[in-house]
Each structure stands twice: as structure tokens, then as C-alpha cells.
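Entry under discussion copied across for reference:
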Amino acid sequence: MSNKIIKLFNINYPIIQGGMVWVSGWKLASAVSNAGGLGLIGAGSMYPEVLREHIRKCKEATTKPFGVNVPMLYPEIEKIMDIIVEENVKIVFTSAGNPKIWTSFLKEKGIIVVHVVSSVKFALKSQEAGVDAIVCEGFEAGGHNGREETTTFTLIPMVKKEVSIPVIAAGGIASGRGMLAAMVLGADGVQIGSRFAATAESSAHQNFKKTIIDVKDGDTHLTLKELAPVRLVKNKFYYEIQDLYQQNPTVEQLSELLGRARAKKGIFEGDLENGELEIGQIAGFIDEIKPAKVVLDEIMAEFTGVKVLIHSL
């Protein structure tokens, strides 16, 4: 198999593991890369020196390409970018910000840059900024999300029609069938988060992993749009948010309720009541914790099998 994403990243399969906060450490990233996909270290939940440690451990664990995902809202982003350059990371995915700010800096260092977008408007801005590819993420995705509430399978063909750079589909994809559907609509590859969050190598707490496989259809919701839209599992904290909304709250009141480190509390520490449990709608499809290689192999086997079946019709 060969396509634009495989050639761009020098990988075997056009599957990218999402760089999720408190989930995507060096163990998960290296496991996905070793299995033929592209593993990403999630810098959003790491202090700069912790990121350096994860990069170095990932290099020890794999000789395959891997990257780092950097949310541009990160408070110490200058230090993060300097470490990425110092540690000779070759691939960076940026998100939650203006791609023009860091793309030139990174590309001047010979780094492949990919930016995450949730609309055609920002896809075009990313292309103008000079990124090498874009991730088009629909609102089915877990964690922080676009305000537009555009679904993945609506977004992909609209973006593909307007840009010339490779397009990676994200949000609501956890199977070979989902991957094939995204690529039929124009995607050159897929980025998968929730399915890899529920793997043996994920750094998420076991309580959170169990929550992922217990989630059913309708158990997540996109909320807190006044701050930064985020898709959460409906737990005690989520219902506290909804109760506050009944009082027509100010942004300050919402921010006070959110407080600090809610995602860490839920995802990394396993507090299922008071934590922010960020996961995508596709969690309702996930029913088992497996090694990352098994997940990737199963996705590719189904993708290939269904593709052959369709061609035979």
C-alpha cells in the first residue's frame, strides 16, 4: 500500500495515533510506530523536561518515525518547540491555534508540520501557512473540539474540494470500515484517538480505560463552548456543568467550576466522578483493551478485507 501520507511520514500504513493528553506517552507512540503507523507523543500534558524524557525513551523504543503533538495554547510552548528541535524530532502536529505562528520556524529546521482543523476556513489558512498536511477533525472526536459541530464525514469532502495538500480524517474512526469510508470521501489517511486510548500501552489510568469500554451511544457530550469546546463522558462533573448552565453562568463561573487539572484528575489519576473524562463518541464501539499492535493490525485487516469485497461486487 502506498499513498501521500505513507510517503510523507515514511510509514507502512496511513494511520496516525492521536497525541492525546495524559494518554499518549512514549510507550503508546513507540508501539504504534513499531506496528507500522505513526505514533505521536502528546506534549499538552507534559512539562518541557518531561517531554524531553519521553522523546528520548521513544527513540530507544523504536527506530521508526514518530512525532509530537503540540497544542498551541500550551503556556511554555517556546520551551517545547526548542526541545523538539534540540531532540531532532522530525514530525510535529500542531493544534488549537494559528498555524502561521510556528510553521515557518519548524519547517526551517526540516520538520514536517501538520495542523489540526475543524473547518474549511482553517484548512485553507493552514495551507496558506505552508503546512505539509492537515488533520480534519469532526465534532465526534473526544477532548477539545471545534465550535462548528461539523461531523467528520461532512468535513472531509468539503475540505478535500478546497485544498491540494494531504488530508487526514479524525473523529469517530476506530475500525477498518471507518478508515475506508473516510478515504472514500477523500482522506489520504486517518488519525485515531479513542481506540488507542483503550490500549495496554496507553498511559491513561485503568479506571479511565474501563470507562471507555463501558461507554454507550449517547454517553458523551460536547460542552463548555464558552471556554474551549470539549467532549466529555457524562459523569458527576459533567452534570455539575449542566446544573450551572441552568443559572445562565458567566465565563468566569464556568472557569471557576472547571478549575485546574480536571483532565489529569480523570484520565491520568482515575477520578471518575470529579475528573474531566475526555473521549470521543466512537467509544461506544470500543469494548476491549488490547495491545496497540493488535488494534492497528485489526484495523488494517478489516480495511483490506472490506476494500477487496467492495471491488468484487
About this structure: The first strand starts at residue 15 and ends at 17.
